[in-house]
């Protein structure tokens, strides 16, 4: 559903008395429920661009004297959505707060990838119930990916009636309207669009920090891996125009940002939905390569869409970093077929070979799911052998859990939990072993570190990341924060490096 369809859906034929009588009860609340069936449809409707976002005069000053609090769960895309919502809140006159205790509006920006993430949100809603009782004028909202699921909205309606607002990932630009409805309505305001073909530009943002920034280059995913809810919650693939992205990156460079990460659920499918130009992620990266910003990354890529042109462009180096997150999910071709990943073990290994041939020092990280339905011991061993062959720098590892509404949820979840846990433990042992080996290779070397701030564990120690995304802790003056400095690694740990700054400029391999 786009803006035009939304307006049409709200029109009621006043001359149809029977229709008005039968359906009037549904208009007691602002209720636009999500539908996973609708969300799965992928038509060829035009992606509409809206460059005219602004705060309507009727909403100006809505937040004067009020504070907002947003708790974010999940991926970088959710974090960036929070930055946009914070920008809208500030434009409405609200002030940010770090505590729910003095907030006038509390939003939970949710993730739907793992069952555990959903449980955390429902637990938090339970905790906030007493706060809502103490302060009835408090607005409590749930947004993000969970809000796009029918089962979640139904559960909130049934179990958490103290929630005031539920809105989806496609409705963020409607936040002023949703807040206004919530203030006026005595019922829960639910506005979730199941389909979306729009790209909204010029949304205000309050970026977290002034050193690293996220830039959305596309939205949605059309891959429909059988275990994944994202294509339903984030909608169809739709790319921002390259000129908009390039302008945003140039603006960030002018503001002094040192690193940007291009974001997309399936970032290297960028541009495939354009019908007027032939332009992909490789073309975009080639343009961004010319901008005076030290570091450019992207995440998350899909092996199926990682083409030769992108590899060729990344091999130019410079500000295009050769740390690549490339989720494999399984090392078994049979399991990959069940997952509908659209590649097999051999094709993935061939892609890795191409990347390493073009960029011999490239570091690869990955995602792996263990205990997918029907996964045999032999198939799991194939995952271990692929991991050994590629020698990933690190991996995010997960036990499979069914997500309601996905094809895999209809499969028999026939791997006992104790087997899943045992496989995860074996996989993690291998991940730790190879990570420790890779980190050991850094000892005695000098690396370039983008200093982000004080270490979480020791304020006297600074922390930052290398070009290959390795966390380095070292002592240096606070004036180094926000700069890229040379650090000699003196000790390697499994996941972090300890170092000391070096004064002279050193050529880094």
For the largest beta-sheet, the strand count, sense and barrel status come to:
7 strands, parallel
Report the CATH architecture of the largest domain.
Answer: Alpha-Beta Horseshoe
Beta-strand share of residues: 15-25%
The CATH superfamily of the largest domain bears the name tm_1862 like domain
Low-confidence stretches: 1-29, 505-509
- Helix count, DSSP H or I runs of 4 or more residues: 15
CATH class descriptor of the largest domain: Alpha Beta
**Large-scale geometry:** globular
Whole-number mean pLDDT: 90
- Our Rg estimate from Cα atoms comes to 24 Å
Keywords:
OB fold (Dihydrolipoamide Acetyltransferase, E2P), alpha/beta, seven-stranded parallel beta sheet, TRAM_dom, globular, 509 residues, single chain, Rossmann fold, pyruvate-formate lyase- activating enzyme
